Amino acid sequence: MKSLPEKDPGSPDRRSPARYLLWLLRAQWRSAAVAAALGVTWMLSQALMPAVIGRAVDEGLAAKDERALLAWSAALLGLGAVQAASGVMRHRFAVYNWLAAAYRTVQVVTRQATRLGGTLPKRLGAGEVVSVGITDVAHVGEALDIVARGSGAVVGIVVVAGILLATSLPLGLIVLVGVPLILLLAAPLLRPYREREQDHRELVGELTGRATDLVAGLRVLRGVGGEGLFAGRYREESQRVRAAGVAVARAESRLSGAEVLLPGLLVALVTWTGARFAAAGSISAGQLVAFYGYAVFLIGPLKTLGEAAGKITKGLVAAGRVVRLLGVEPERPAGTARPAAPAELIDIPSGLVVRPGRVTAIAAADPRDAQAIADRLGGYAPGEVDFGGVPLRTVADVRERIVVAVNEDRLFSGPLAETLAPPDALPTDEDVLAEALRAASAEDIVASTGLDAHVAEAGREFSGGQQQRLRLARVLAADPEVLVLVEPTSAVDAHTEARIAARLGPARAGRTTVVATTSPLMLDRADHVAFVQDGLVVAEGTHRDLLEAEPRYAAAVTREEAAPRA
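Below the sequence we write its predicted structure tokens.
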């Protein structure tokens, strides 16, 4: 079998949910075609069994011909072997189609989330994104999985109808008319099922987002006494989800009941009509046995068609959510300019000039001003920024060239080495990671855990200071052309901060580094310090020069120095 996932998932068709599912089918048409062929073989081997049994009854038992009975018994055994072999292979290819469609959807969704960056949380809730990644990809996979059995069901019904028509025109017509009639009667049940499933999926996404927010802010909620209030709101929303789930189950039960009742009525009609023909002598005893076998056989493919309708309906609902996510466009349009490195970076609203190859510190009387400048420098907030003589918004590869690191960043789950190493790192880049760990003063963390240690979700096994140092090591290992750090040492002790301040400049030699901080230890090691007040650069120079010449700067730095550390 082919390994998953594929390196390049391709460009999805996001014009509609149906077109997205068809795109998946085209992308894996070979395995889908093989699965469909195996599904047809598997179903036909079952469809021919009643005919073989009928011939065995007529030519073997009724005629008392032992050789004919053995021959038809051998034929029945052969059909059983074909059914078993094709069933095993059909299942394997169907599961592959399921996994391939799910993984491909995960790939295109992840790629889109990476492309959107800061736009994603503004346009879609965290719960909706999580719901797409957990539940919707499974429903998309199931829509591709049912192709194998669905194809076999359609061909099986057509073949049985042909056999019945050749044997008895009335029986064949009953099947030919009955099957479309069953589908027509079941069709009205699909629309309410799809609508209720859509409403339920939306509510589940909202509830997942509420749960995510609740867990992320649990400590804060307990601190302000708001845990009970949010728990009550979560309880109310969960009851809405439960009610929506019951509505889905009710619609699904009606559809499932129709899958049993309607084919059962058709089977009863075929059997009753066949018995009358046998009593009248129009058909033989073997043909009556075969007709009964066909009637029982038809229950399977008809139920499969009902199952296919349900899975495709769920797949369309899930694909609709995927298409919605894929249709979101980033707030920042793709640029085409490629200024040569090293490039000067100018934040026009504040007047900040960041010269290449230096460590520039931003000390703001209000930390929100420094954060706003950092967001503009990274292109995450509106504002005129010049990068190498061209507007930053027109730069093509700005996400690769400028990296903004904030304390809200998270450590990813997995081996520590993979969590810290850049995405395109090679095994030979261990020295790069080692230097980054030293610059971030995080060698002691790695020494105690090892690089092969497993990192839990968000690195919760580490303290706040350890997480901050590991995040700093990760971004230093990435070695971007321009690195913007926002309060990178706010959670570490003074001794560790002093080491980081001393090592940061040499680690970033030849690169441009911006540090938004009011820590004297960090400011003293910067090549250039810009003091920002009311959103504007009001003074520049070295840390020591500003302490003597700018009382407002001295007051801001002294406050930070005197403040207790976490």
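The CA atoms of residues 172 and 325 lie 48 Å apart.
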